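Quick illustration, no need to memorize.
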Amino acid sequence: MALPVRNPALLNYLESQIMNTTRTYGSINGFLSDNEMRRIAPSLFAPHAAPGVSDRYQYVSTIDVINTMRQAGYEPVKAGQGKTRTADGAAYTRHVVRMMHRDFLDPSKRNVGDVVPQVILQNAHNRTSAFHLGSGLERLVCSNGLAVSVAQMSGLRVLHNDVNIHDHILEGLEYIREVTETIVTPQIEAMTAKVLSKAMQRDFAQAVTVLKYGEEKTDHVDSLLAARRGEDEGDSLWAVLNRIQENAVRGGYDAKDAAGRSVKAKPIAAIARDLDFNLDLWTLGAKVLEIA
């Protein structure tokens, strides 16, 4: 695939990525109650594993894990689950919950543009996913939910046959907190200080179209770089990253289909795709920070 991105280092990174290559909902009250989560993502409350699962598979109750995290000071703020072909499958499918410490739940104690850490919980009761904790970020007002790459920065993967899973979850929360403070926060500060040229901004946006669509979509570049609010304007890598992320995930801007007809860009709605895209985007942003 020909990629006419001008920066050679970014081009090499993109080519290597190509070779390896239900929306979530929150509560207006700041955090989700059990009733709200039951409506949004009923698979969180599955009382047992899906029928037909091997006897060696150990069922891990997601709501019990959430309650363990509540005891550690965290509350669920967003939740969602994957689509299934049958109603029965919806009771056990892959689900994602974003947890935030109570210290960050009051917006009056934060300023516009502040970034707050989250813990992203993933699980399933049908053998499609191990239990996983990862680190995430959310900006006040914009609420981008930008996920940090668990592969390179932080994360805890626990198999369903781990008898000490709740202890390991608490250990994972501490590990994610430490990595956020020592690695992620300094990286955000560096991104905020890094000014990108207009050409590099366009290369970055063009590279993101490859992450989302598997091919370059040059007609999307201007829309991906557009600011939806005044606070997001600017030439810093952090400002550009957040503009691109929100526009790519939310979609809705004018674009062209394969036949050249005018269409609206589609959002990234599937929970697995949303997580994977945001992880890839963060890694790409870190690469831009390195080479710009």
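Helices lie at 8-19, 34-40, 62-71, 165-193, 198-213, 221-225, 237-250, 271-291.
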